[in-house]
Fold this protein.
Amino acid sequence: MLRRVMGEVFEEVDQVAKRRGLPLLAPWLLGPAPPNGRDLARAPVGVAQLALFGASLTVHRALSERFGPPDAVVGVSFGEIAALTAAGVFDVPQGAAIAWELGRILTSSCPGGLTLLGCGQAAARGMVSQAGGREVVVACVNDPRECVVSGPVDQLRRVEKSAAATGIASARLRLPFSSHHPALGRQAEEFAQVVRRYPAQPMSCAVLSAVARRPYVPGDDVPARLADCLVWPAHVPDAVALATGHALPGQRVRLFEAGTGSALAANARRILKGRSVTVHAPLADPGFSW
């Protein structure tokens, strides 16, 4: 079933890839030698974003077939495009085109980088200040013990050295750009104008934003809210709280990571420790029952 759904989703995604002169993803991903992360990183600009977007929509559609439509979808950073598409605000080719445009803007005009730190946001801010990272900001709060900082590469290096000196784990993300940074206002406006080419349709379910830290509501300026992901931080704990709070009293709560890995699922488990909430990362769990 998963392979069939992936073929259906990437047939639509490849409409965008073909128009942009990019390699078609369906034959590559479903072929005998599918690409890994390094292969996608070496591919032309936008290919990785189309692959990640399509993977998220594949998991969403497959889970909807298996368990029924979701009560809510959560958008975290780049995943907000897929979340809005899953909720019917955009169709798949439109969502894929928006994902490609974001990839183009990020790689062409958002200098800097992103570093994962094994500490909470208060400790991260203290470390940034101590290291002299004046232009480094907390970009994403993943859970109480993990966050991502964004800024110029030279200042990120100083933060990483400070982390090592204090025994805090750090890892530079393999992304050649910064994001969730207040200096990216011009890029955010450019992206908002791109998104305005695709009129938003009514949502089929609630869309919860980790950047806005609230649900989308009727009357929201969807292009502006998506563009906020370039300049505002994302807060996964708030998004998880919104998702669990969205359930009806007595309703069993199950959270599924609609992506290729399990990082967000691990964050959610730490956030929800002690709560009777089930968290799954389907593509990372070979035993997951589709």
